[in-house]
User: Which sequence fits this backbone?
């Protein structure tokens, strides 16, 4: 009996803890528009309940009366030794140096001849579609973020929000943000666009998976149709990953919406490409070619799809793992592929897609850990954000994202990285050296 | 032209050519090949190091394989941290060498208790990952008082309470000098930093105390490399490091990325010696330059550190000591500095967890080191006796290897046969990862065994087996 009560109490305590953390998360969402500013205040309140109260101890200590330098005993007087040292050094410096050398830093001279193709996502009314805005990716003739004079990157990266056509297992940090909308891709997509500023919507048609619901291609068409009606940003339509079923689903979708500039996610070498590519080729649909961390296979699938699909309608996905889970493979594969493209390898001259949601596959992004490692509701979005940043630096162009905070931070960062590279207050850069910084 | 390793023939010609085998290689040519691939070190050739006749050759060999980015060693009596020593701009061109060192700051206005508590937190920071203990590296001591005596006192408390090497941070040479004076001779701290205004005094200290010297010139690359030339060539301080400035305003962040990229590009592609030094980044700048609340600054610090680590920083000074800020950094660092030529993999085969018998469950996983270590520790934690088939997915995780067709029934079947699994267990059931569900048909076809799809994450294995692995259930599955 006692045990029961104890257990209940434990559960209650855990529930309380969860409520607190969830409250924190809803706060994150609330303040997305204002920045993450207010979150800390909330946490401070929390601290009083569950964590240690931060001790800020910034007062200076009284100045000590004496400091004993630890110098070897055999040296008689540190003062003398120091003076000799000074004399020696001054001698060296004095002899040789009159003034500071003046040399100019010449910017690196890079020569690249290749160009990444420009791929358009979505189509406006003029183009036969119904999108208010389209996104153009790629066009690069230089590695990412090199800031060479005279080079303006043609198109910045873009950020889309993930939705699913049925309820699936999602991290709680994500569930909490979208609430009831999770059961309804239309509501979910609207929230993404209206509230969280997603620039495109990714619909993952998981229900078409033969081993899940085996929903028909016609049903998938209905879902895509409802999204095209509900939001006016480009739509990326993803299959279930079953190579046979995806061919059927994709065909129905591109036949139903031949001029919307949809993006099909994704084609891979397990599919009978000849059964789907001709249908895609007849429309203005773009595709994502998927070749997980394998450059040779990326070349192979691109080469094959060129037969039916114009190059400027192909995006490449080399896959990425969340931090700690194979990130370096995807990162290096992207760096290699982009360099090869710029040197002139036409088979790799495509913008990159990144399935950032993979970041949540990292256990550290969602599992409860010792309190020192922080609440998972913070770790999760941070994991996704940092994984995206790593891909951004490797040259990724389009990001499929699960959490609104990630999009929020990446949009801000994009603005920063695409500014003219010139600090506003260079003289303030070293303020950190003597700044009083709170210790938590 | 980027840096290229020397021809093994050139290396061979400078070796003793006796094929003595003391280095562990069958002959000198094999050793030369390993040297140019950075798979062994010159010091393994003991005759080269010990025989005075080879002294000149040894020196020539050392310079032949010396990196375009200078390697710098920081020391405390108990710990050595190397930074720089890099050869390439891109990881795939060879590999990155010395992982970005992470320094956490303390300052001279902290009271003794706060200071000691913080030092303990820094030293205790540890995360187990793929059987490795991920840790922090250095202590950066700042002076907010700008008072030499106060700084010296703080340095004294720090060395009494930490084993980690130090960075002494101030633009006032008198403050730095007071700190250096307190340090026992076994210490080799870094001085941060010389600027266009204080370089003479800082150079004098660096010479006198033989300490590596950081140079900073925020927002001005020409002055930065001019200082590097003056201090390096004219004054002869060999161990320098460069900080072009970590900014957090829009144009400033773009400048920071540009500066790190240009500096490292010029070092590794143009072999330009004035930028051939380790690069220092200061994500701690977020705390003095980002408006807003503490949470904002911490996010910023994590973002800056990730950007800088990815774009070539060799040393980062960070303020946050919170686990959620540091954890992704130490994990990404580990990955970035693995050798891209070798997958992070464990050998494939059949493992025993606990003491499995003929009715114990048979689990299947990939040979990616991380996957393997997570799965085996989860099964151990669940106190289950089990057989674990580790298949060669070429070091890929389960989901990726399924997508890449490297998690196949044939591979499982091969290991089952070579280990006579059908004689070790009576049942005919394989439990595969949830993320490999798509491969279950292929696995049943190749092995002829029944396949049960396990949990999506191995942390659920204990509960899963409790439910599924009962005599009744096993019977039921086998009779299907």
Assistant:
């Amino acid at each position: 009996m006692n045990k029961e009560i104890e257990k209940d109490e434990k559960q209650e305590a855990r529930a309380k803890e969860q409520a607190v953390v969830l409250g924190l998360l809803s706060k994150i969402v609330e303040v997305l528009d204002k920045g993450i500013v207010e979150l800390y205040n909330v946490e401070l309140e929390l601290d009083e309940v569950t964590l240690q109260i931060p001790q800020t101890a910034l007062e200076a200590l009284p100045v000590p009366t004496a400091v004993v330098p630890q110098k070897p005993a055999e040296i008689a007087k540190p003062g003398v030794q120091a003076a000799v040292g000074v004399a020696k050094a001054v001698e060296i410096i004095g002899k040789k140096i009159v003034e500071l050398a003046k040399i100019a830093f010449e910017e690196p001279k890079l020569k690249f001849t290749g160009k990444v193709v420009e791929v358009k996502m979505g189509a406006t009314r003029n183009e036969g579609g119904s999108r208010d805005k389209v996104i153009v990716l790629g066009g690069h003739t230089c590695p990412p973020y090199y800031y060479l004079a005279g080079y303006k990157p043609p198109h910045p990266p873009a950020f889309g929000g993930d939705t699913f056509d049925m309820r699936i297992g999602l991290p709680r940090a994500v569930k909490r943000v979208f609430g009831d909308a999770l059961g309804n891709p239309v509501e979910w997509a609207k929230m993404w666009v209206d509230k969280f500023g997603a620039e495109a919507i990714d619909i993952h048609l998981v229900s078409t998976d033969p081993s899940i619901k085996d929903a028909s291609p016609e049903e998938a068409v209905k879902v895509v149709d409802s999204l095209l009606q509900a939001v006016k940003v480009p739509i990326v339509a993803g299959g279930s990953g079953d190579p046979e079923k995806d061919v059927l689903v994709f065909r129905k979708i591109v036949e139903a919406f031949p001029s919307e500039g949809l993006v099909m996610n994704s084609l891979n070498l397990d599919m009978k490409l000849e059964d789907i590519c001709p249908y895609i080729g007849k429309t203005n649909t773009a595709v994502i070619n998927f070749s997980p961390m394998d450059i040779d296979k990326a070349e192979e699938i691109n080469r094959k799809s060129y037969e039916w699909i114009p190059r400027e309608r192909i995006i490449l996905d080399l896959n990425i793992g969340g931090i700690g889970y194979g990130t370096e493979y995807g990162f290096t594969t992207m760096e290699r592929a982009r360099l090869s493209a710029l040197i002139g390898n036409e088979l790799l001259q495509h913008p990159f897609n990144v399935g950032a949601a993979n970041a949540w596959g990292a256990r550290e992004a969602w599992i409860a850990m010792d309190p020192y490692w922080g609440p998972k509701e913070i770790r999760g979005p941070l994991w996704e954000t940092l994984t995206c940043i790593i891909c951004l630096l490797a040259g990724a162009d389009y990001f499929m994202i699960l959490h609104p905070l990630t999009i929020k931070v990446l949009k801000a960062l994009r603005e920063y990285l695409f500014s003219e590279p010139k600090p506003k207050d260079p003289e303030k850069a070293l303020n950190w050296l003597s700044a009083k910084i709170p210790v938590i | 032209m980027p840096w290229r390793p020397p021809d093994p023939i050139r290396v061979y010609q400078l070796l003793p050519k006796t094929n003595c085998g003391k280095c562990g290689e069958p002959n000198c040519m094999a050793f030369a090949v390993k040297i140019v691939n950075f798979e062994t070190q010159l010091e393994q050739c003991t005759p080269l190091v010990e025989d005075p006749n080879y002294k000149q050759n040894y020196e020539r060999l050392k310079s032949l394989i010396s990196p375009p980015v200078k390697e710098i060693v920081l020391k405390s009596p108990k710990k050595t941290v190397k930074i720089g020593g890099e050869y390439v701009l891109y990881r795939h061109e060879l590999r990155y060498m010395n992982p970005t060192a992470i320094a956490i700051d303390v300052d001279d206005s902290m009271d003794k208790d706060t200071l000691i508590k913080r030092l303990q937190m820094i030293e205790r920071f540890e995360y187990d990952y793929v059987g490795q203990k991920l840790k922090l590296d250095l202590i950066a001591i700042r002076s907010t008082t700008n008072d030499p005596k106060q700084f010296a006192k703080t340095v004294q408390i720090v060395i009494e309470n930490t084993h980690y090497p130090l960075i002494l941070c101030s633009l006032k040479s008198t403050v730095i000098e007071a700190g250096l004076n307190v340090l026992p001779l076994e210490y080799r701290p870094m001085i941060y930093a010389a600027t266009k205004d204080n370089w003479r005094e800082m150079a004098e200290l660096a010479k006198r105390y033989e300490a590596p010297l950081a140079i900073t010139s925020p927002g001005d690359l020409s002055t930065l490399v001019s200082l590097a030339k003056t201090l390096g060539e004219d004054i002869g301080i060999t161990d320098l490091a460069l900080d072009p400035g970590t900014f957090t305003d829009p144009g400033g962040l773009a400048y920071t990325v540009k500066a790190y990229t240009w500096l490292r590009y010029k070092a590794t592609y143009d072999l330009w010696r004035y930028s051939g030094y380790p690069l220092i980044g200061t994500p701690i700048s977020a705390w003095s330059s980002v408006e807003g609340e503490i949470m904002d600054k911490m996010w910023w610090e994590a973002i800056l550190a990730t950007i800088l680590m990815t774009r070539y920083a060799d040393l980062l000074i960070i303020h946050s000591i919170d686990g959620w800020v540091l954890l992704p950094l130490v994990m990404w660092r580990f990955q970035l500095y693995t050798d891209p030529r070798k997958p992070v993999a464990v050998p494939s085969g059949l493992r025993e967890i606990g003491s499995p018998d003929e009715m114990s469950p048979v689990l299947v996983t990939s040979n990616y080191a991380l996957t393997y270590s997570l799965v085996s520790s989860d099964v151990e934690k669940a106190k289950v006796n089990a057989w674990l088939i580790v298949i060669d997915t070429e070091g890929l995780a389960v989901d990726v290897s399924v997508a890449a067709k490297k998690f196949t029934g044939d591979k499982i079947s091969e290991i089952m046969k070579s280990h006579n699994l059908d004689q070790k267990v009576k049942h005919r059931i394989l439990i595969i990862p949830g993320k490999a569900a798509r491969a279950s048909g292929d696995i049943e076809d190749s092995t002829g065994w029944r396949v049960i799809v396990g949990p999506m994450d191995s942390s659920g294995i204990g509960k899963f087996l409790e439910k599924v692995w009962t005599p009744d259930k096993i019977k039921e599955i086998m009779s299907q």
Q: What stands out?
A: The longest strand of chain B covers residues 101-107.
